């Protein structure tokens, strides 16, 4: 599972690639569960027919999804990845899935452990063309007992047992998983598609278009 990634910090790079103005605070450059980072979503008002509402918006949030019913935000330490095969039924993720609360997570790279040497070696995985990644995720809105509103998000993952690159990571006996890297041209469709089509986007990114460095 992916618990560590690099967020996109350069504001011009962010705006140019994702066609949205980044939030004033884009959070940490190195992101781990419970850290502040940004997410891109379709505004809740987008379906109201108001032409003044933008197609997408970027806002600050927490890495690690906090369901609306959670007692505190620390639950995000365990909910930073959601298995796409079960997200629709798992209590932590099902409301976000069923309500189409999909988001794009701007990332320059993510990290996975390479155990082929017998010990974990952190490996940085990025796009081979150097462009940012738009990772598929789910978002949620949580209100604390003190009345503060927190937006949070998680990454969606798929099986990678047969992926030419990602099958090399995690412990030998573990199932291989990978995050969903959206094709650049799929950003609008990912955010706007009907809930019934969500699984259509759960596709592996071509291994030849990724670069790994330890």
TrEMBL record:
<dbReference type="GO" id="GO:0006508">
    <property type="term" value="P:proteolysis"/>
</dbReference>
<dbReference type="GO" id="GO:0008233">
    <property type="term" value="F:peptidase activity"/>
</dbReference>
<dbReference type="InterPro" id="IPR003738">
    <property type="entry name" value="SRAP"/>
</dbReference>
<keyword id="KW-0238">DNA-binding</keyword>
<dbReference type="GO" id="GO:0016829">
    <property type="term" value="F:lyase activity"/>
</dbReference>
<keyword id="KW-0645">Protease</keyword>
<keyword id="KW-0227">DNA damage</keyword>
<keyword id="KW-0190">Covalent protein-DNA linkage</keyword>
<comment type="similarity">
    <text>Belongs to the SOS response-associated peptidase family.</text>
</comment>
<dbReference type="Pfam" id="PF02586">
    <property type="entry name" value="SRAP"/>
</dbReference>
<protein>
    <recommendedName>
        <fullName>Abasic site processing protein</fullName>
        <ecNumber>3.4.-.-</ecNumber>
    </recommendedName>
</protein>
<dbReference type="GO" id="GO:0003697">
    <property type="term" value="F:single-stranded DNA binding"/>
</dbReference>
<keyword id="KW-0378">Hydrolase</keyword>
<dbReference type="GO" id="GO:0106300">
    <property type="term" value="P:protein-DNA covalent cross-linking repair"/>
</dbReference>
<dbReference type="InterPro" id="IPR036590">
    <property type="entry name" value="SRAP-like"/>
</dbReference>
<keyword id="KW-0456">Lyase</keyword>
């Amino acid at each position: 599972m992916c618990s560590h990634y690099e967020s996109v910090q350069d504001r011009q790079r962010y705006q140019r690639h994702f066609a949205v103005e980044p939030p004033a605070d884009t959070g940490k450059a190195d992101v781990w569960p419970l850290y502040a980072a940004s997410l891109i979503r379709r505004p809740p008002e987008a379906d109201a027919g108001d032409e003044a509402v933008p197609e997408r918006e970027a806002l600050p949030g927490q890495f690690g999804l906090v369901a609306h019913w959670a007692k505190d935000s620390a639950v995000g330490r365990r909910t930073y990845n959601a298995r796409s095969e079960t997200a629709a039924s798992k209590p932590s993720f099902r409301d976000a899935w069923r309500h189409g609360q999909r988001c794009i997570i701007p990332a320059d790279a993510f990290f996975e452990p390479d155990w082929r040497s017998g010990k974990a070696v952190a490996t940085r995985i990025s796009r081979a063309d150097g462009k940012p990644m738009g990772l598929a995720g789910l978002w949620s809105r949580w209100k604390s007992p003190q009345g503060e509103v927190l937006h949070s998000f998680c990454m969606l993952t798929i099986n990678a047992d047969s992926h030419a690159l990602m099958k090399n990571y995690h412990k030998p006996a573990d199932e291989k998983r990978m995050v969903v890297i959206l094709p650049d041209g799929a950003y609008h469709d990912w955010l706007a598609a009907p809930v019934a089509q969500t699984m259509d986007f759960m596709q592996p990114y071509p291994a030849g278009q990724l670069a790994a460095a330890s």
